[in-house]
């Protein structure tokens, strides 16, 4: 820019014709305007730094979103309500839009809880959730994924900034990357697309409302208070007399069903599916027991978001409850990625 201005001055001083001077002047002005325009467009590092600063400065937020899972035959859609108050208070309410299936994840001074109001139960985890993995509906988690990924791609449109980053999910080999779209005006999240290795979008989160620095009343993150209010929104399930046995569709190559046992217990029937092969595993299913009074149980492992429900993941097992049935998947050979893949393929049967 400086060289072009200098060139114009030199030409003027050397007595170039008036017409040539006009053309050179127009060229320099046009170039100057382009330079100003370019200077006004933020770089990837500018936006990343601004996001990092926003997370550091904000006191919390409230947001509403719609989460769509494309992991089964039919898409499953969930409404998600998210509250966060610094330093570490969280309330995430997930509700299936077509079924009376609702769960709430709470983090407060007492720990991390997963509430299942339809069963009148809560499960307490000794966990550092949500710090232990990516969370598609938590703003600060998305920002952290952007900041930490030195190879993240970036593009800018008229209204949005769009990042593509790697994920930090517990099953990140199955869901390795995500596309995060943010509003230019306030850096609020617009959407998140989580993709598999073939770039197929398996999970999408669309944000409809985000309010930063929201105020929360005393007790907003209290476990008992939230269980009570959740039970009003989602009535307790009627105790089921029977259930349909579900079989996973996606199992490791070389593994097949070898035995199916039905066991009568004092609470009803329990079905045990045993698979043998290179990656053997066992899947147990039985009716969920609805507590007559609110109960809280200490859960083993970490809370694990399967999308359609929140389960408990250990090194060798994954357990979850859905639609009035308890599931427990156990194996000495399956990795956490493989456990979640098998579990999600059981869920795909539920929508049929």
Count of separate DSSP helical elements: 6
Query: pLDDT average, as an integer?
Result: 85
Would you identify the regions where 5 or more consecutive residues have pLDDT less than 50? 1-16, 28-38
Total beta strand runs: 19
Characterize the main sheet. Answer: 12 strands, mixed
End-to-end separation: 65 Å
Radius of gyration: 27 Å
Order of helices and strands: HHHEEEEEEHEEEEEHEEEEEEEEH
Secondary structure class reads alpha+beta
Percent strand: 35-45%
Helix content: 10-25%
Shape: globular
Strand order of the largest sheet: 7-8-9-10-11-1-2-3-4-5-6-15
Description:
This protein is α+β, with helices and mostly antiparallel strands. The chain has helices at residues 2-13, 18-40, 44-57, 139-148, 223-233, 336-350, and strands at residues 60-69, 76-85, 89-96, 102-108, 111-116, 121-125, 153-156, 160-166, 177-183, 189-195, 201-212, 255-265, 268-277, 281-287, 295-298, 302-305, 310-313, 317-322, 325-330. The chain has a 12-stranded mixed β-sheet, with helices on both faces. A hairpin with a 3-residue loop joins strand 13 (268-277) and strand 14. Helix 1 (2-13) packs antiparallel against helix 2 and helix 3 (44-57) crosses helix 4 (139-148).
